[in-house]
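Entry type: protein chain
Record version: 2
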Amino acid sequence: MPLSDKTIAVIMGGPGNEREVSMASGNSVSQALSDKGATVVDLCVEDRDFELKDDVDLVFNVIHGTFGEDGSLQRILNERRVPYTGAGVTSSELAFDKGLSKKCFVENGINTPAFEFVSTDDGISPSFQKPFVIKPPKEGSSVGVHIIKEEVSITEAMEDVSKYDKIILVEEFIEGKELTVGVLNGEALPVVHIQPLSGFYDMNNKYPWLGGGEGSEYFCPAELDEETTRRVQSVAIEAHRALGIEIYSRVDVILSENDIPYVLEVNTIPGMTETSLLPKAAKANGIEFGDLCQQIVQLSMQLRKK
């Protein structure tokens, strides 16, 4: 399906903490689709108050986090009968809410770190033995994530997480390799091994150009034996399917020191610059960035015909 006769609106920005990252993704996707011959309309949005011209054939959604990844934008586009890329309303809501997605993993027998929920209103501390992780259940890019190793850091960390949500997700801390697996059209891409240069893979180490972190190194394909690679890719596909995600996603996995993969979360709108992790994995599989964007467009148009 050529793109030369298609008008595609690239929607980016959004109201959340990942706005600048979304803008970078949007600019990269816009250029790639233009290079493929599409007529591209760039739309930077804050909320539902945006206009789409009638000649738009498809919306390419690259709003990371709030509004773009939580089902809100998808619901609006469904109401307007405008096709869009990637996950739909239900799968977006499930994947974005870590509480719902982790319950879904447990119900489907998918390995995920043990967890509990703590309310900031009741003054109860987490019951896990240190170290453990606390995070807001509805944020992306490791926003508000804290690894608790000492008692004195609990109160400060909970106060920080409470800025985002009254409910805190508490997770067992799994020591191991940080991996991520892109899933495209039901198939797993090569595994990426993420190695932060300091600390853990937080917002600063993901996007050092935003927060001044030291950054991270990436190895793709990850240096894993064939059997371990197969198991990591398999659990990623299981998580993607359990949440009912359409078209593509990126699944974050911790591989424990005894080579057991644990699914942390599934990202339905992963980063989409040429150096982002999903495009990096696609390139290792012989799919250049422009071709990846084109595939996402074509698969989405087949799924959501006007």
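Comment: The longest helix spans residues 19-35.
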